[in-house]
Amino acid sequence: MVYGKEAVRMKILILPSIIDLKQGLGCTPFWWQLYKALYENENELVVVPYLGRAVESPWWETYENPCLKESLLMKKLTDRKMEKRVKKEKQGKDVKKEGVFPEKLVQKLTSLYTVPKWKKKIKEINKEEDGFDACLTTNPLNQFEEVTEFIKDLMDIPVVYYEGDLPTILPKYALERGFRFNHFKNADLSLYDAFLVNSEGVIPDLKEMGAKNIHPFHYAVDPDLVYPVDVEKENDVAYFGYGSQYREKWMKKMITEPSKKMNGINFVVGGGHFGIDLGQAEFVGNVPYPKYKYFVGRSKINLNITRKSHASVYKTSTGRIFELPAMGAVMVSQPYNGLDEFFEPGKDYIQVDEEEDIVQIYRDLLSNENWRSEIAKNAREKILKDHSYEIRAKQLDNILYDCTKIN
After folding, report:
1. So what CATH class is 2-220+389-406?
2. DSSP of 8-77, one letter per residue?
3. pLDDT digits (tens, 9 = 90+) for 50-73
């Protein structure tokens, strides 16, 4: 381990929930950008995923997932349950219990099959790599608890947990949100030497649940990978996301209703798992991440519509609020508690509220190219100044270093 004024250099074992972009989970591109920034900050990274296959990159070394086949089978089964949930939602049926596997069954399978394989793999990796300075994980808490304890005993290093889907991953939201697993339930949060969170409003909840040394750690972007592209603005209003749960109200207000009223104005929606009527918007399905910047770039207005809990709980970050400005988009957002602490409303983005005429806001923006250009310019400048993964990686380096001193 090398410590200096300019950099904290460590060998970090990273155990993410996923690293394969083909598995389609929205957090994965951000893990890539964060790990790249950690590497560029002169850290040595070893990445072993919990779900799906290991993926090599120029920035980290990998070892294969010891439960590769089991994890892919479980994802296939849960994907089917999620499809069933969306189908029922479109039919107006109660979907609260759809998409979630029985907790006792998951815990039993994990204890019998997953944990022993992971312990064996961790032991092999530790021997091969001759130890680590710290461990960073995003794996399901109550499934990975025994493995976390094993790492701490075997390596005598700090283990830091990063949760990027707060607050909706908390037990009081998880069931209705439709998560595959309620992994906070009965989990021992005190096992972790630090807890990184994307939502500042949930910190009191996490303290009550036993988490210690909690740090706000917000999403960001790598401006070298996420940037504006020079393409024709062929669409007027665009939205991309996965799942309509907890978004129904504002998707209807910002997409369904305006698209029916605004003749001649085209709306496009990408993503999937939408259980609501999208009005006259064109649904284009999944957009692979390398093509996402082109989807955004082709639209004059891009919408920020996020889960009710994300928008209402103070200063909760999602990837979208940084991606859109970084891509040069004009972002129009639903009401969002704390977004004004990341960006300046009216200058960097436009926020609508309950009483405003959203159709008129769209018309005003669409008719004023100079106004749109100014908003896009201001927002990207804010990204470069405050919200790059280079900045976040330095923050994480300091947290990990402090944990090694405490440990």
Report:
1. alpha beta
2. EE-EEEEE-SB--GGG--TTHHHHHHHHHHHHHTT-EEEE--SBS-----SS-EE---TTHHHHHHHHHH
3. 988 999 999 999 999 998 887 777
